[in-house]
Write a structure and sequence with these properties.
By secondary structure, this protein is an alpha+beta fold. It has helices at residues 3-23, 38-44, 129-140, and strands at 26-27, 50-51, 54-59, 64-67, 72-78, 87-91, 94-98, 105-110, 116-122. It contains three helices and nine strands.
Length: 168
């Protein structure tokens, strides 16, 4: 191959590489303590490309996912919660404890599953909270370990309108 042609190929490759690397953003997250649990690998491969209108962004931590900038963060391998008086609801056939709302975010943790999964949704965004959790639940459900416990009293939802109120 002539030298000028090789230079053109190398230059073109560098331009393409620069363009592609400019399009991807990697978000720094801390992995959960049990992120190396094989069940988290099952969940990780099932994470959706988008939740609601939020596209997935790449993370640098094992068993995590993020969407938006990140507006939504998922971490697999967090400590499973004990029975609780926190609000418990079933969304997408997965039981979630809705933890106390913080100033800038809302946290949920799967209930009755090990390893547990935490979802953090940043407040103040124009997103449908239920749609985000439903999308994640539906996507990851087949990779989750079977439930060993269930919410005893559930927050009424559209899929379970006869359920009661608030204990896990």
């Amino acid at each position: 191959m002539p030298r000028s042609r090789r230079l053109a190929v190398v230059a073109g490759s560098l331009v393409l590489l620069a363009a592609l690397s400019g399009c991807s953003t990697t978000i720094h997250l801390e992995p959960a303590e049990d992120a190396n649990d094989p069940a988290c690998a099952e969940v990780s491969v099932l994470l959706p490309d988008a939740v609601g209108d939020l596209d997935r962004v790449w993370t640098d931590a094992q068993a995590t996912g993020a969407w938006g900038d990140p507006t939504v963060v998922l971490r697999c391998g967090v400590e499973p919660p004990a029975p609780s008086t926190e609000v418990c609801t079933t969304i997408g056939s997965v039981d979630w404890l809705v933890l106390d709302q913080e100033e800038d975010r809302q946290r949920l943790v799967t209930y009755g599953r090990e390893p547990a999964i935490e979802v953090i949704i940043r407040r103040g965004e124009e997103i449908d909270f239920r749609t985000v959790v439903e999308s994640l639940s539906t996507s990851i459900q087949s990779g989750l370990a079977p439930a060993t416990a269930r919410c005893t009293d559930r927050v009424p939802t559209e899929e379970n309108p006869d359920d009661g109120s608030t204990e896990g």
